[in-house]
């Protein structure tokens, strides 16, 4: 577990804690604008921004959880599915609107698939990249979330 974290989010986070967050749209005849600011849009300050693109047909992304990091995923172009798993419940969301994304708490396993041609996934994260914050083995994830299935 990441140093400084007293509670392992894997034991407490639920799929129901994750939610869609719709960004405001400033509509204009020359195109729309949506803005994310570190002033209350999310329960975290954005520390890292990355995006996934040129994803081959049939490819999957994700396949991990985090001890500490929050994420917000947005389909800025195209569409894809995100399946969230808390060890006891799974739920799939289809992201296909450039102003509506998925807020994901720490401790939730995610997989992404069904990417449309030309899709782009923008990710905003609460933390800088730290390989020690990842759980990449699903068996270990199930061990960390075992208390939810008792």
UniProtKB/TrEMBL annotation:
It comes from the Bacteria. Gene3D superfamilies: Jelly Rolls (2.60.120.10). Residues 17-144 form the Sugar 3,4-ketoisomerase QdtA cupin domain. This is WxcM-like domain-containing protein. It comes from Candidatus Limisoma intestinavium. The lineage of its organism: Bacteria, Pseudomonadati, Bacteroidota, Bacteroidia, Bacteroidales.
